[in-house]
């Protein structure tokens, strides 16, 4: 591994009590509540992700439920865009037409193309006018680009969200299985579980979802985290031997039967259900699923991702979700920019409230909610994340542009057949990635990720 190093991350542990959903102060304190009380309500079209319980709950039980109280001057039409590649395709159609929703949620790989098309509103004037930036414990989540523009707002929960390999303690105990520490040990565990009639590891394979969002990066970081950092900054490509070996490790897992049958067509919720029902012994998923897994499968625990080499401390390097341009965005040509900007900030606040109240998880956006009764598993998750020396954001969300992310979805789905070689994969994806990497190095709104040496 490269020299010992780390990305600075302050885990802001919100102290203890719960259940307030009032974000009115965001507007009243800024003197804006009275400014937006028209006789007729302002109409907002909102494109919402709708592919998971988390996003459904945020939309239904927070954004919708608190809307009349918090923003009585708005009338919001909800366009449910699905998730994954379906959502990406829908947003790309909107962007190509030039007629966008007033507000939408975007990952960075979608944000950049919208910004380049001139369809994203600069939110900086509204953020500073209403002092929304002062609500963040870490200013990097609300920092402008080098031209002073801010295009998205988010809750800042992403920095506390990492991919985990969850497992049923009862199943492991029943078959006398020790938690694997290396990749080779993981293969043997998968082979044993397969013989016992269980799915070893449940994943969402549709459009390559799990591989796209974290499993490929996980396999890269299991051998050399520096290569993941080089990808983020556009300083290497898929011919890198570390990446080639990561692809081969995924294919080998497919070939030994580690994943569900026909996994390339398995959607997100069925993959979660396969684990919580006990049909799968392990689950590869982000830590945003922790509360649900604890509730539906109380014997759940997680293991550090197995490393490539024995003796390597596989808790030192972690991936976290998110990127600077992920979050709620506003159409540059919206008829009511102030109302749309307020709604985007409202949505980011409702996200934070959901995570603080329902998940008992911290966010960088300070809602004033105090968290109590955090479970032992949640404390373990945050502690391990806090202690990691290397923290790297998701390559998929922070580096891939829309062309690369669309193509890598195709390639990852093919890889899940077990009959597609890393060489074929690399030949197909690398030309697009080389252009993507060039954009990363040149784009004006780039934020480079760096390792900072330990003191």
From TrEMBL:
PROSITE patterns: PROKAR_LIPOPROTEIN. Keywords: Signal, Transport. Residues 1-21 form the signal peptide. It comes from the Bacteria. The keyword Signal applies. Coiled coil: none annotated. It holds the Pfam family SBP_bac_1. The keyword Repeat does not apply. Gene3D superfamilies: Periplasmic binding protein-like II. Belongs to the bacterial solute-binding protein 1 family. This is Extracellular solute-binding protein family 1. It comes from Ruminiclostridium cellulolyticum (strain ATCC 35319 / DSM 5812 / JCM 6584 / H10).
């Amino acid at each position: 591994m490269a020299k010992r190093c780390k990305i600075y991350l302050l885990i802001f542990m919100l102290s203890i009590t719960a259940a307030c959903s009032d974000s009115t102060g965001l507007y009243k304190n800024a003197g804006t509540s009275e400014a937006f009380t028209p006789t007729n309500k302002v109409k907002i079209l909102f494109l919402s992700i709708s592919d998971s319980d988390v996003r459904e709950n945020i939309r239904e039980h927070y954004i919708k439920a608190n809307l009349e109280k918090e923003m009585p001057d708005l009338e919001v039409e909800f366009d449910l865009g699905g998730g994954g590649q379906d959502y990406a395709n829908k947003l790309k159609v909107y962007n190509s037409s030039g007629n966008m929703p007033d507000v939408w949620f975007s990952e960075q790989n979608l944000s950049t193309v919208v910004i380049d098309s001139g369809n994203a509103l600069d939110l900086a004037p509204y953020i500073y006018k209403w002092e929304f930036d002062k609500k963040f414990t870490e200013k990097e989540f609300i920092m402008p680009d080098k031209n002073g523009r801010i295009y998205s707002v988010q809750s800042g929960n992403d920095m506390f969200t990492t991919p985990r390999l969850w497992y049923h303690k009862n199943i492991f105990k029943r078959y006398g299985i020790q938690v694997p520490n290396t990749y080779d040990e993981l293969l043997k565990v998968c082979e044993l579980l397969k013989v016992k009639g269980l799915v070893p590891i449940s994943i969402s394979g549709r459009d390559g979802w799990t591989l796209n969002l974290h499993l490929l990066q996980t396999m890269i970081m299991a051998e050399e985290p520096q290569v993941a950092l080089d990808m983020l900054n556009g300083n290497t490509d898929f011919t890198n031997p570390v990446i080639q070996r990561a692809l081969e490790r995924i294919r080998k897992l497919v070939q030994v039967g580690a994943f569900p049958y026909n996994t390339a067509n398995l959607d997100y919720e069925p993959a979660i259900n396969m684990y919580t029902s006990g049909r799968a012994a392990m689950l590869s998923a982000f830590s945003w699923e922790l509360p649900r897994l604890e509730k539906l499968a109380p014997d759940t625990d997680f293991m550090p991702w197995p490393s490539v080499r024995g003796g390597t401390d596989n808790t030192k390097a972690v991936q976290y979700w998110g990127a600077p341009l992920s979050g709620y965005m506003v159409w540059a040509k919206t008829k009511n920019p102030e109302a749309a900007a307020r709604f985007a900030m409202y949505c980011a606040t409702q996200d934070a409230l959901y995570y603080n109240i329902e998940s008992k998880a911290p966010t960088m956006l300070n809602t004033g909610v105090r968290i109590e009764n955090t479970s032992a598993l949640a404390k373990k998750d945050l502690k391990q994340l806090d202690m990691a020396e290397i923290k790297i954001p998701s390559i998929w969300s922070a580096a891939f542009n829309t062309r690369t992310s669309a193509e890598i979805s195709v390639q990852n789905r093919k890889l899940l057949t077990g009959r597609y070689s890393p060489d074929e994969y690399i030949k197909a994806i690398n030309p697009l990635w080389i252009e993507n990497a060039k954009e990363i190095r040149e784009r004006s709104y780039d934020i480079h990720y760096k390792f900072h040496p330990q003191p």
